[in-house]
Amino acid sequence: MTDIPSPLMRGAAIRGRIDALAAISAQPDGLTRVFASPEQRRAASLVADWMRESGMTAREDAIGNVIGRYEATQDGAKALLLGSHLDSVRDAGRWDGPLGVVTAIACVDALRRARRRLPVAVEIVGFCDEEGTRFGATMLGSRALTGRFDPALLGLTDEAGISMAQAMREAGLDPDAIGQAARRPEAFAGYLELHIEQGPVLEREHLPVGCVTAIAGQTRLAVTFTGMAGHAGTVPMAGRHDALAAAAEAVLAIEAAAQAQPGVVGTVGRLEVLPGAVNVIPGRVRFTADLRAPQDESRARLVGAVRAAIGRIAAARGIAAEVAVTHEEPATPCAPALRRLIAAAIDEAGWPALRLPSGAGHDAMEVAAIMPVGMVFVRCRGGLSHHPGEHVSDEDAEAGARVLHRAITKFPELAA
Amino acid sequence: MTDIPSPLMRGAAIRGRIDALAAISAQPDGLTRVFASPEQRRAASLVADWMRESGMTAREDAIGNVIGRYEATQDGAKALLLGSHLDSVRDAGRWDGPLGVVTAIACVDALRRARRRLPVAVEIVGFCDEEGTRFGATMLGSRALTGRFDPALLGLTDEAGISMAQAMREAGLDPDAIGQAARRPEAFAGYLELHIEQGPVLEREHLPVGCVTAIAGQTRLAVTFTGMAGHAGTVPMAGRHDALAAAAEAVLAIEAAAQAQPGVVGTVGRLEVLPGAVNVIPGRVRFTADLRAPQDESRARLVGAVRAAIGRIAAARGIAAEVAVTHEEPATPCAPALRRLIAAAIDEAGWPALRLPSGAGHDAMEVAAIMPVGMVFVRCRGGLSHHPGEHVSDEDAEAGARVLHRAITKFPELAA
Question: Residue A69 — very low, low, confident or very high, per pLDDT cuts 50/70/90?
């Protein structure tokens, strides 16, 4: 490999640190690291050590985020925030989250080695919870940082019946102090998050990295079709009100509505048939629709098309339809200036700058509440994530680090 | 009501006996009467009493069928067999089965009152098991009568782990003697079964009775589509192999294939989605297809069309399809002469003789192995069956009895 600003940016070095973090797990044969667990605290402590080795000050905040700071040319300057999350799902992959923290530290290490200070400070955060594995509620770490953590969440309980407040105390954290983790928007100039794609697009395009345009907004629907159950042998086709046949039309209508707009996805992931006997015409079907789009207008069109199709199908079949919105989250556009910055960094590093939306949620969604955000995606094998087989090649990890380093060093020009 | 050959043929009288049988149940608040139960034996005993009151000899056979005989003008003549079953599903309706036995006895009572003997004897059977509620295997009573009872069935166990053989012994029946229940085909001239329709056709046509053309044959398929699971947000529509979208196409293709032929039905009653999470593209779907037709050629065309559609859908979506036949039963055509006899009886009773197939199975399917069979359908409210709300009006019950009586008295002309 050619000249590199820090050996920590090399693929093998990045992989070494990813593996070191993966070894800090609640399960012996795989990776599970959840909010307010001993593992999560140990991972934060290891990351703090790495930050200090690379010339940063490091601390944990009140909720357990680990935060390092590499000072600017002038003390107290606004900071460019980098980072991602250190927690995981159960039986997780090792790259989802930590890659953004490890590459960010490597980039700061490159600044330290060059004895270079920027007009902005660089802060790196390793968020203590993004996945929401333990308590269901996601992005606890970034919510605390933006000051939008709702104390009502402290009453949520995990599978063992332990409340979030109690879990924090057992982990040596003070739930009453979470407000102290909130940062002022004025303290930051922007946020850059490097993360694995968790999808197949970069692999299909044979590119190691890409520039995220927006984090998709999402609408989740719960749909119930109620028709008329009946004997599969004795009710002629003409008189049927088959709830599953109606749902089948809806599944295909949702697929078609999503296909009609670029970058939009629609999925029926759950579908339950009642009564569910081989010789009984389904009287009721419940299913979900997960609808996502990088622009809220696209999502509104998608949801409208799906609702219209459901109404049309139900009316044509003499079936009752109920549609409930169970979740709604607007899209988070990446800041145009940060998109240009990242695209230029990819371009200068020698690859075409593919722009793609993120269909999955990321800390950047929450951080966007208080500052402009940008994201770099790194290719992962087969698009596989949330699975022990999740994998990033050394070459791709290094490509991500190089792009991030370029974006960081060019950022002050942008902020100027 | 006008002149009637026996007061037992009146709707209210039929209802009275249906209610008396419904009171003989394993559950206090509803009707459950299964094979080799004390209730089943008591019901058979009550029916035997009614048979004797109407001038018949009556006995139980080795498996627990109750059989009455009204002798012909000459002793030992061939018999016209009438009847249906006395067992029920769990939490059953009261008309499914007993109506055919109660109306048959009323018709013989009319012969007795008229001091009339026919050139054929009339036998009535109350089968001890048609539903298969207790041991899964259906039509145990008629299988014993035709001599096609497979002794291997005696090893089947009920939910309590009691074998069929043991259950029979506990009920005072001898499993080793079942072969003695077999009747010689030469003993019979034909079989007429009156049964509720268990479907909505007669109600829709505003007719109390109908003439069954055939009992539909049936093919059951178990289909598995295996595509590729993935994140509902990160996998673009274009690269998906969504097993549920494929299954949705198959559900609609099955519906369309059934609609393409008159009298044919096709139903997907069970469908299971894996992994079944709101935000995961379904990687695998398992579903059943229940395909029925009154002619085996129609069913063969239907099954062929469904298999072809499944293959086409799977190929177009890059999905693997497995299709297994889990059940196959040929159609049982009603004997043309008996269809004409019943149609003429309906016509003479003053209604248009609607001919319709039976989508559900009946004892007549099994009895057809040793003699020609015919069936009279009686309207039931809303087509509802296998449910406590199952209902036949007094007028319709009486209409059924009148048609059956006419068919019985005209039968000797046919046999001559």
Answer: very high
pLDDT of A321 higher than 80: yes
Of B113, B124, B122, give the one whose Cα is nearest residue B6.
B113
The answer to whether A177 faces chain B, any CB pair under 8 Å, is: no
- Residue A265 half-sphere exposure, CB side, CA atoms within 13 Å? 30
Give the dihedral of Cα atoms B298, B303, B304, B310; nearest 10 deg.
150
A269 touches chain B (CB under 8 A): yes
Looking at residue A415, its pLDDT comes to 62
Which chain B residues have a beta carbon less than 8 Å from that of A383?
Answer: 230-231, 234-235
Which pair of structure tokens corresponds to residue B96? 């499914």
Query: Which residues from B are below 8 Å from A238, CB to CB?
Result: 259
Residue A229 DSSP label? -
> Is A270 touching B (CB cutoff 8 A)?
yes
**Predicted confidence (pLDDT) at residue B291 exceeds the cutoff of 80:** yes
What b/e readout covers A214-227, taking b as 16+ CB neighbours within 10 angstroms?
A: bbbbbbbbbbbbbb
- At residue A38, φ and ψ (nearest 5 deg) are -55, -35
Rounded-to-integer distance, Cα A394 and Cα A407, Å = 20
The Cα B106–Cα B403 span in angstroms is 12
Is the dihedral angle over the CA atoms B249, B254, B260, B262 positive or is it negative? negative
Contact present, B375 and B334 (Cβ < 8 Å): yes
Of residues B223, B168, B202, B206, the one with CA closest to residue B358:
B202
Task: Provide the residue type at A37 as one letter.
Answer: S
Residues of chain A numbered 210-229 and touching chain B (CB < 8 Å): 216, 218, 220
- Read off the pTM: 0.89
Query: What distance in Å separates the CA atoms of residue A291 and residue A268, rounded to the nearest whole number?
Result: 9
Average pLDDT over residues B354-381: 97
A370-381: pLDDT as tens digits: 999 999 999 999
B274 interfacial to chain A (CB closer than 8 Å): no
pLDDT of residue A1: 47
